[in-house]
Amino acid sequence: MNRELIAAIDLGSNSFRLQIGRIVNDQIYPLDGIKEAVRLAAGLSPDRILDNAAQMRALDALRCFNERLRDYPREAVRAVATNTLRVAKNAPEFLIQAEEALGFPIEVIAGREEARLIYVGVAHTLPNPHRQQLVVDIGGGSTEFVIGKSFQPIQLESLYMGCVSYSMRHFPGGSVDKRGLREAELAAQKEIQTISHAYRATGWEEAVGSSGSAKALVDILEQNGLSDGGITRSGMEKLRALMLKAGNVNSLKLEGLRPDRLPVLPGGFAIMWAVFQEFGLERMVFSEGALRLGVLYDLLGRYHHDDLRDATVTAFGKRYGLDEGHAARVSETATALLRQLDPDTADPEHPDHRFLAWAARLHEVGVSVAHSSYHKHSAYILANADMPGFSRMDQGRLARLVLAHRGKLSRLTALGPGNPEWRQILCLRLAVVIHRARDGRGVPPVQLQADGRGHVLLADEAWLRHLPLTASALEEEQRQWNAVGMPLRVQTQALAGQP
After folding, report:
1. Is the distance from CB of 389 to CB of 126 less than 8 angstroms?
2. Which contiguous run of DSSP H or E holds residue 153?
3. Beta strand pairing status for 454-460 and 488-493?
4. In the structure, what pLDDT confidence band is assigned to residue 395 with cuts at 50, 70 and 90?
């Protein structure tokens, strides 16, 4: 098992970030991260000279990173610098000191290369990267725009506008008025107009925001009830009104507004507003993936997966030493039972099919901790581990299914009787019971049917007669389901097509 550590350093125009990741079976699991608010772009003069104060802040941050990385081999670390060091005239002189402070080479990457790496990072966090995505990353000195699909960028562009530069130029001292805000929005729209026609012609299925400005906007909109999820046009309109009413960002009293984001909030807002206007957006989701994660995957040399969550589940199977043959049989039986209850789930892409299959494949990860109450250990791992591609909500769903696959059902009554997860739980529990002997048998001769608030399991009489332990376990299942008011009846008969 490969447990190498690799590190990415993003020398951005607003913040410097260090991300350390662990490689496990060709997946990257974030292990540690450090952020320093350097505000490099704030030290860039009109004639593009980086002042001494900004250089000192940067060097201090890099020395901190060096302390964390000094034992890493050179090939395990990649540092990239973005817009401010692309445009600063004295960047070559500064980079000599910066590399000495960091202890590793620093690459100043082009705008489109930055966009490509951002997309690689974002794509590795998307549940379904096969959808065509518009990715927008508002940085301190530049904003990257990507349209991509299946880990392949289709359109790449970097525009010279960022939250630091726009905040300094249009909102001095944090002051926000109608004229200044409108000027900033129009300036951003003018920049975006150079690419908007081509991007609209290519098209996308979903808009995704990444990095600090998008994160700050998501936090503010969601935590203050201005949005029902993600960044929305209506939420932005409400925030716009609040900023104008306050007159200065330092007077804003909003949940989720971090002090370190205050100085650059109006610039980031103006650019995001222009993005929504020029691309005709109504909603944008947020991705934790960003440049530093893209650098990690670029360093690893992996760009392509089918579905990132599938790759993660496969990696977990190897990581926890699962009996993959047994897990596959449980998964096959569980999904076959679900298909009998709901024919729509025959589609492998159906969400219920996918989550049930993943839960079946991972239900025994807790055995690596202890066999006793292993389902509880499994649930804890799935709820709290780093699982690339899975949201925390996804992990919670997996954890509930796995926790419920054995033991008392009474602890799950908080789900409510109408919750659709009950039928997935039923299918998983039955599949685990049927395959408890681990004898390699395939999908059994049984039929599962809905019956009012409960279910009926029809089992082939001759088949079950030779499996007294399975019959006994099914009797216990009946008692469990009856106790929670969703009765299960097991009936035997000669099923058509069975010997």
Report:
1. yes
2. strand 152-159
3. parallel
4. confident
Give the start-end residues of each E strand in 82-126: 106-108
Question: Domains, the chain, ranges and CATH?
Answer: 5-109 (3.30.420.40), 112-293 (3.30.420.150), 324-493 (1.10.3210.10)
Q: Name residue, tokens 């990385």.
A: 69
pTM: 0.62
β pairing state of 106-108 and 77-81: parallel
Helix 178-202 vs helix 163-170: angle between axes, to the nearest 10 degrees?
A: 150
- On the CB side of 250, how many CA atoms lie within 13 Å of its CA? 7
SS (H, E, C) 54-70: HHHHHHHHHHHHHHHHC
Handedness of CA 250, 254, 259, 265 (dihedral sign): negative
Q: What is the pLDDT of residues 140-159, one digit of tens each?
A: 889 999 999 988 889 999 99
Burial category of 90 from C-beta neighbours within 10 Å (exposed 0-12, middle 13-18, buried 19 and up): middle
> What Rg, from alpha-carbon coordinates, does the chain have?
27
Q: What is the largest CA-CA distance in the chain?
A: 87
For 473-490, letters b (16+ CB in 10 Å) and e give: bbeebeebbeebebebeb
Both tokens of 318, joined, read 């190897």
CA angle at 126 for the pair 4 and 225, rounded to the nearest 5°: 120
